[in-house]
Design goal:
Distance between the termini: 30 Å
Helix content: 25-40%
Structural class: alpha/beta
Radius of gyration: 14 Å
CATH superfamily: Response regulator
CATH topology: Rossmann fold
Shape: globular
Number of helices: 5
Number of domains: 1
Strand content: 15-25%
CATH architecture: 3-Layer(aba) Sandwich
């Protein structure tokens, strides 16, 4: 059974520069084809996607963002700050999914209004468990905001 919001498949923006992690997350979360996963490989690309600029002019608005902190060009901290300061974007839940275990990064992410902070485990079994936990909570249990800006 497809999980939908307002009769639409859930749109996920994955902001991740590690191709291996992108592949694993896609494989785990698309197992039942109920999620539409879009990938931005750096922070600048993520913001272009969210603002529908250039080649992203026709992309859907994501229902949720999975954001790595350590990104090229514009890091995840900057992306999170821009999202949460933008009236059109701030309601989109942002789940930080990163290798950083730094207390400073954790505190900063929550200061910037991250909705969740998770560490990426290095082994596949635990990595799969974390991604499945995100999917079960954010995509099945939680009520996500509508895609309307107002």
């Amino acid at each position: 059974m497809e999980r939908k919001i307002n009769n639409k498949v859930i749109e996920i923006l994955l902001v991740e520069d590690n191709e291996g992690d992108v592949g694993l997350i896609k494989r785990i979360m698309k197992a039942k084809d109920r999620n539409n996963i879009h990938v931005a490989e750096d922070g600048e690309e993520a913001m272009s996607f969210l603002h529908k600029e250039g080649r992203f002019s026709n992309v859907p608005r994501p229902n949720i963002i999975l954001l790595d902190l350590n990104l090229p060009k514009k890091d995840g901290r900057e992306v999170l700050k821009e999202i949460k300061e933008d009236d059109d974007l701030k309601r989109i839940p942002v789940v930080i999914l990163t290798t950083s275990k730094s207390e400073a990064d954790i505190n900063r992410a929550y200061d910037l209004h991250a909705n969740c902070y998770l560490n990426k485990p290095v082994d596949f079994k635990n990595f799969k468990w974390v991604v499945k936990a995100v999917e079960k909570f954010w995509l099945q249990a939680a009520k996500l905001p509508s895609q309307n800006h107002s």
